[in-house]
Amino acid sequence: MSYRNKTYIIFDADTDIHYYRLMTAWKSRDKIDFNFFDAHDINNLWVRSTEATIKAKLRERMKNSKQAIVLVGENTKHLYKYVRWEIEIAMEMDIPIIAVNLDKSNGATSKTPPILKDNCYFVNVPFEMKKIKYALDNFPDEYHREKSNAPSDRHYDWTNRAL
Questions:
Q1: Total domains present in the chain
Q2: Which among 150, 76, 82, 153 has a CA at the least distance from the CA of 113?
Q3: What pLDDT score was predicted for residue 34?
C-alpha cells in the first residue's frame, strides 16, 4: 500500500466548488496556518472522461488519502453518482471522514448524507478554517481509536477549545 498523507475532498462540483477553491487558497497563503496534502493534485481528469475512467482516477487518489472531507452543502445528500460513491469508497478503505457543514452548523443536519449518519464514525465541523484545521489535525487518530462506536453524530464542543 502506498503512503497515505493526502486529504481527499468530496464535494458537489456543480454548486460547492468555490468552497473547495477557498480551502486551496487558505493552503497557498504563507501567513495562514492551514495546510493539507490535496489528493486532487495526484492525477488529471478531463471533462470528457467516461464515468468509469473518472471513478478509477478518484479511487487512485483516495488510495493515497489519510482522511477525507465531505463539504456538506444544500444538495450533498442527494448526489449519488459521485458524492455517495466517494463516501462509500472512503468507508470501504477505512478513511476517517470529516463532514464540513457549509452552513457553518456544528453538528449533523438534515443536509448530512444519510450514509454518514447511519453507518459511519465521523465528525461534523462548521466551515471555518481553524475548526477544519483542528479536525484535520486531531480526528484521524480519534477515528482509529473510536470507529467501533459507529454510527455517530460526533462534533466538537468549541466553547472551551483554544484555536
A1: 1
A2: 76
A3: 67
> Where would I find the H helices in the chain?
17-28, 51-63, 85-92, 114-119, 129-146
What's the CA gap between 93 and 85, in Å, rounded? 12
pLDDT higher than 90, residue 81: no
Domain holding 118, by residue range, is 6-157
Please give the backbone phi and psi of residue 57, each rounded to the nearest 5 degrees, phi first: -65, -40
Q: What is the pLDDT of residues 102-112, one digit of tens each?
A: 999 988 888 99
Report cis status (omega within 30 of 0) of the bond before 151.
yes
Report yes or no on 1 lying in a domain.
no
CB 75 within 8 A of CB 103: no
Lowest mean pLDDT among 31-35, 70-74, 80-84, 150-154: 31-35
User: Beta-carbon neighbour count of residue 71 at 10 Å?
Assistant: 23
